Amino acid sequence: MTSLDTLHTDAAAIFDHALKACDIPQAFDRHLRFEGKTLIRQSSPLLKPVSIPLDPYKRIVVISFGKAGLTMLNALLERLPAKIPFRGVCSAPQMPKKRSWRIRYFEGGHPLPNEDSLAAAREALRLLKRARKNTFVFFLISGGGSAMLELPLDPSISLDDTIAFHETLVASGATITEINTVRRYFSAVKGGRLALAAPEAEKLSLLLADVPLKDLAAVASSPTLPDHSTPQECFEILQRFHLLERFPHSIREYFEGLHLDSAPPHAAKEQAFTHAQFETLLSNHDFVNAARDYARSLGYKVVIDNSCDDWNYRDATQYLLKRFHELRRDFPRLCLLSSGEVTVKLDGPAGCGGRNQQFALFSAFDLAQYNGSSLVVLSAGSDGIDGNSPAAGAIADPTTISRAQAFHFDPDATLTEFDTCPLFTALGDTVVTGPTGNNLRDLRILLSSN
Predict the structure, then answer these.
(1) Which of 195, 242, 389, 450 is least enclosed by beta carbons within 10 angstroms?
(2) Domain of residue 422, CATH code
(3) Are 358 and 415 within 8 A, CB to CB?
(4) pLDDT tens across 148-159, in order?
(5) How many structural domains does the chain have?
(6) Element of type H or E holding 431
């Protein structure tokens, strides 16, 4: 095995280990346990556990949605005492083979909502609006929930226009925080409105954070946390990215009808959040730290640099590679890790690919200048799905461009057309995990051994 082959193997192993280390059932056990009908929360080893007796509640409601919707739901139901009755809703990327008769399952769409996304939101709101003081609600929330649980505030807006709204936002080049700010002013379930639907009920939100911890409100567009954005911020984003003219007519009319001095979604019923608790089960920090520890065990000097989170993929690539080349002068056996997400702006029809494969192919042009060196760049998503492709991401090295050309690919045209998956598939350099049932953002792994 050549040193380049070894780097390919090591990069894939680091990514795989980080995924396995972020096991959702194990995360439940670290943070939650049941003693009889009492729920014990252990937020941190340094904090005293919090006991929540469930006996006083006559109804238990479970609302689970997002890319990890099924995994989180199953983890909770496996631990929920058998004598506790419950009803619930789950909107996830696929239907489970084994189902609980107490849960209504929906196959929500992502990255764009579908009919099931809207049906799941209607059913969740129906259950929550029946909740009273004797109701305890578990919200299980993970990334992707913005599309998988969706309902326009304006009931006259069609599904097709809702899909076009989400598609325009995703392709706009705006950051996920900016996108979610706009979504919160459009949706009947975002911006704290799920919590507002059951103001008297006791609520516990369990989060899989696919956003920086400082911005937990961005998870699934903040359905159960109070929204502290302003209409002015929403309109500034709409104007800066020229979104209104790109929206369908019904969406444009809806936003033009909003008043700049209207209150944020949460303001009218702030008391709804006095009955709300929150727990982050896993975050991107857990993911990248697991990768760091495993890379160190392989003998690499590890540096973590997350400063290019939410940058355009080209700017992020140039920044990280410049840092990588500088660092490896002092540390030949180097692992540079970067977590978070990069943005891609689509100016026309796109092929098969995603932001991670786009990042990897753009990196390959730089790496081609170092032919003969042992350098590898892996970029992949923890959810196992990169854009509209079947891959989680891809691996690039100094030979990627020449090998692609030998297979009659035009790497420049491939990059422009956002059609990277066929190229990396032909080279055998895609990272394929299948849907992981998890979502802790992306990870970029830059390795060198000389």
Answers:
(1) 242
(2) 3.40.1480.10
(3) yes
(4) 999 999 999 999
(5) 2
(6) strand 430-431
